[in-house]
Amino acid sequence: MKKIAALLCGAVMAFSSVCSATVSADKIAIDQVEPGMKISKVVSIYGEPTRKKGDEWTFRHFKIELDDENSKIIEEVKTRSSAFATPEGVRVGQKAAVLNRAYGVADRRDIEDDEEQYEYYSHDYSRKIEFKVVNGVIVEISCEYQIEKKAH
Predict the structure, then answer these.
(1) Angle at 60 between CA 55 and CA 64, to 5 degrees
(2) What's the CA gap between 45 and 62, in Å, rounded?
(3) Residue 85: how many CB atoms within 10 A of its CB?
(4) Would you call 120 exposed, middle or buried from its count of C-beta atoms within 10 A (0-12, 13-18, 19+)?
(5) Are 93 and 100 in contact (CB under 8 A)?
(6) Are 14 and 20 in contact (CB under 8 A)?
(7) What pLDDT band is residue 4 in, cutting at 50, 70 and 90?
(8) pTM (2 decimals)?
(9) Strand 56-58 to 51-53 pairing
(10) Tell me: the pLDDT tens digits for 64-116?
(11) DSSP characters for 85-152?
(12) In sequence order, what are the beta bridge partners of 50?
């Protein structure tokens, strides 16, 4: 009976680890830009943006959106350029198959028409990294700082 209970417990633990990728928060970034960091740090690294439109700032290879309540904090960073990679080495232009090797099974996956979205959350759900995929190829990467933590 103890062997069955141990096997059942092990199976439940293995299944639960497959269901949630639980990405480390420091793995949710594009190049040196992390959601939740101060805009002044981004400007010190990359220089002034090429365009500012309200809370949306455009730099050469990426765009950021500032937090509505605290305009000094980056809420979201996204890129459609292959010039920058995530800390796990994932870039725009790569096949979607790299996502499972780099991040594991997605916490959430949506398919709409020809576009797929793979979402991975940090351990505490304060950050999210999302990959948009078209025809099996990554076309956009975005990272978001979630001010209100989601309960999952």
Answers:
(1) 25
(2) 13
(3) 17
(4) buried
(5) no
(6) no
(7) very low
(8) 0.82
(9) antiparallel
(10) 999 988 889 999 999 999 999 999 999 999 999 999 999 999 999 999 988 99
(11) B-TT--BTTSBTHHHHHHH-S-SEEEEETTEEEEEEEBTTSSEEEEEEEETTEEEEEEEEE-SSPPP-
(12) none
How far is the CA of 130 from the CAs of 10, 15, 106, in angstroms?
30, 23, 9
84 token code pair: 């920058």
Place of tokens 């103890």: 2
**Which residues have CB under 8 Å from 101's CB, separation 6+?**
none
Neighbouring residues of 129: CB distance < 8 A, sequence distance ≥ 6: 23, 27, 28, 86, 103, 119, 120, 141, 142, 143, 144
Q: Could you identify the residue written with the tokens 């680890």?
A: 17
